[in-house]
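Please predict the structure of the following assembly.
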Amino acid sequence: DTEVTQTPKHLVMGMTNKKSLKCEQHMGHRAMYWYKQKAKKPPELMFVYSYEKLSINESVPSRFSPECPNSSLLNLHLHALQPEDSALYLCASSRSTSVRGLAGYSGELFFGEGSRLTVL
Amino acid sequence: AQTVTQSQPEMSVQEAETVTLSCTYDTSESDYYLFWYKQPPSRQMILVIRQEAYKQQNATENRFSVNFQKAAKSFSLKISDSQLGDAAMYFCAYSGQGGSEKLVFGKGTKLTVNP
């Protein structure tokens, strides 16, 4: 199984709603990521979880709240979003490595198809 | 901070021809990884090819190959025998020493393949 599965594929929400995006992988990868991607732009890193602990938060507004319940699941909780938050949200995972004695990650990201979010 | 620059916002190629996408990067690290990712329209992003900086030999994957010039900090992607399915956004990306959790992406090149 080499898939990263994201649900829902499409989500429309109002600015007062609370919703969640979900991501799942069963490749045994220990790093999981949330990216935000606007049209014709590269993905922008939001959060990284490493071994189920938040390791990187790229100064994302608190209306986005990540959660990693276990090594296979990653959630992104959404609350009080703004129309400018409309975007494609990508989940990705990568495997841990040891390269010449240095622990890290392979840099090869496995991406899901994304959740397209529209905030009205 | 590391940066990745893709100077060609758009490129086009005729089917069966060869095209080269450019990428330059800036880093003070000596050990790192470079990647090309492909994102077809409305489909998921996938890794095309990966290069480890300590390896002098250029990486190849079937019709995809790179020209890695470490001193010049250049990492171009050559696609041979272009196919319609190669049409996509191509992102060049950098990962730091030991393979870090954080990828630095270029702005992307949109490749069109003409029949």
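The interface with chain B takes residues 31, 33, 40-43, 45, 48, 50, 55-56, 90, 94, 97, 99, 102-109, 111-114 of chain A (CB under 8 Å). The first strand of chain A starts at residue 4 and ends at 7.
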